């Protein structure tokens, strides 16, 4: 019996891996992950030259990183003659604009307990009401913020022309009211609060 256990222990040691947290297949790729925020410089333009054998451009592929860190490709099919002497320029239309001053959202019907101030990718909700919760919903992407107040008013909607904010909708519920901020695309957001306001920043 003792000899059997010794033999079993020897077999287990031979088959065991040095590090069980890595794949047994040495050719398998491990995807590194990190929780560090990556800070990148804004892209403006970049030139690319092709060799003298090039006579036509067939496609342009843009590889980009998504909010969740995954990598995707977008391909534009082309079929045009080119002059290899001339370089290609890849650019993003990034025209400098004057710094915008915060603009107060005009409300057709008076809502005395909250105001909205928007500038660039920042929306400030000015109110002394206690914030109960905030979260993101999709299809379309929108930020939901609930405030504590026993009030009654008709549902309201304010149309914005300030990307990434498309519009704001408000509605009252039992002892709280809800502010829904619809976005023009997919974003991550942060919300910073003080005693008098709550600032939403999208990125």
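^ structure tokens above, recovered residues below v
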């Amino acid at each position: 019996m003792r000899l059997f256990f010794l033999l079993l222990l020897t077999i287990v040691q031979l088959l065991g891996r040095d590090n069980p947290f890595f794949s047994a297949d040495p050719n398998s790729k491990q995807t590194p992950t990190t929780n560090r925020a990556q800070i990148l410089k804004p892209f403006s333009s970049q030139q690319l030259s092709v060799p003298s054998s090039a006579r036509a451009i067939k496609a342009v592929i843009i590889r980009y990183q998504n909010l969740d860190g995954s990598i995707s490709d977008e391909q534009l099919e082309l079929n045009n003659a080119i002059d290899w002497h001339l370089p290609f320029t890849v650019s993003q239309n990034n025209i400098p604009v004057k710094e915008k001053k915060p603009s107060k959202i005009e409300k057709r019907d008076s809502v005395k307990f909250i105001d909205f101030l928007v500038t660039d990718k920042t929306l400030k909700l000015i109110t002394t009401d206690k914030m109960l919760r905030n979260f993101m919903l999709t299809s379309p992407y929108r930020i939901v913020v609930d405030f504590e107040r026993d009030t009654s008013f008709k549902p309201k909607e304010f149309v914005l022309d300030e990307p990434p904010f498309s519009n704001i909708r408000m509605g009252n519920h039992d002892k709280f009211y809800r502010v829904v901020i619809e976005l023009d695309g997919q974003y991550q957001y942060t919300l910073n609060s003080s005693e008098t306001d709550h600032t939403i920043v999208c990125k």
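Residues 17-35 have pLDDT under 50 and may be disordered.
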